[in-house]
Amino acid sequence: MKLTLEVWRQRDAASPGAFETYEVADATAEMTLLELLDRLNDQLVEQGREPVAFESDCREGICGCCGVNVDGRPHGPQANTPSCEQHVRSFADGEVVRLEPLRSAAFPVVKDLVVDRSALDRVIQAGGHVAVDAGTAPDADTTRVSYETAEMALDFAACIGCGACVAACPNGSASLFTGAKLTHLAALPQTRQQRGARAVAMVDQMEHDFGPCSTFGECAVVCPAGIPLSAIAAVGKERMRAFLRGRAS
């Protein structure tokens, strides 16, 4: 299977970038997108040329490192699937595939397909944590939580922070990401502490680095964790709750 790859090459954030064209003549349908890039880099190294820089870690759809734009779509053609689980079988033999970094003003390019997503980290640093008393752990059933509540919290906690929602949004919004964090941290009694302060701090930081929600819903389509659009409603809900009840509660 032969594919022509148009890959964005950029030395660093201060340097101009451009697409370069490469051919991979021995791609297979079973390859993932990252394995295709591995094969391309094998060829480049064999030719004495600089390999393409891209991120990966677990390659199991958990870490969120691998996100790239494929033909203008975050992660690739298959909905709700991370780049590391997008397969070459999604493309036709002889097809031209364009690969570029996740595009957002909040994600400056580090090199080639690698971007700096520390703006998402700053949202978490602002309030995505909980203070608990240290000491002997209580019994597991001391504080009862319903099955439905626990499952809901886990569903929203599944967000891997890949940044695809930001890249998919015309306004570069991180509302889906922030809403997912606020929802799961507000759901359980152990993580409900500082709920108001958390909402104010995280939303303020989000609004500082990212744009407003576009209301188009592209973010939910590309999210590998399948975070629903209802997470976005949590941003306004939690902020309003903090305003009405006081940020300490």
Automatic annotation (TrEMBL):
Transmembrane segments: none annotated. InterPro entries: 2Fe-2S_ferredoxin-like_sf, 2Fe-2S_ferredoxin-type, 4Fe4S_Fe-S-bd, 4Fe4S_Fe_S_CS, Beta-grasp_dom_sf, Helical_ferredxn, SDH/FRD_Iron-Sulfur, Succ_DH/fum_Rdtase_Fe-S. Residues 150-179 form the 4Fe-4S ferredoxin-type domain. It comes from Cellulomonas iranensis. It holds the Pfam family Fer4_7. PANTHER family: SUCCINATE DEHYDROGENASE (PTHR11921:SF41), SUCCINATE DEHYDROGENASE IRON-SULFUR PROTEIN (PTHR11921). It is an enzyme of class 1 (oxidoreductase). Gene3D superfamilies: 3.10.20.30, Alpha-helical ferredoxin. Keywords: 2Fe-2S, 3Fe-4S, 4Fe-4S, Iron, Iron-sulfur, Metal-binding, Oxidoreductase, Tricarboxylic acid cycle. Belongs to the succinate dehydrogenase/fumarate reductase iron-sulfur protein family. Binds 1 [3Fe-4S] cluster. Binds 1 [4Fe-4S] cluster. GO terms for molecular function: succinate dehydrogenase (quinone) activity. NCBIfam families: dhsB (TIGR00384), PRK07570.1 (NF005746). Residues 1-103 form the 2Fe-2S ferredoxin-type domain. Its cofactor is [3Fe-4S] cluster; [4Fe-4S] cluster; [2Fe-2S] cluster. Its EC number is 1.3.5.1. It catalyses: a quinone + succinate = fumarate + a quinol. This is Succinate dehydrogenase iron-sulfur subunit.
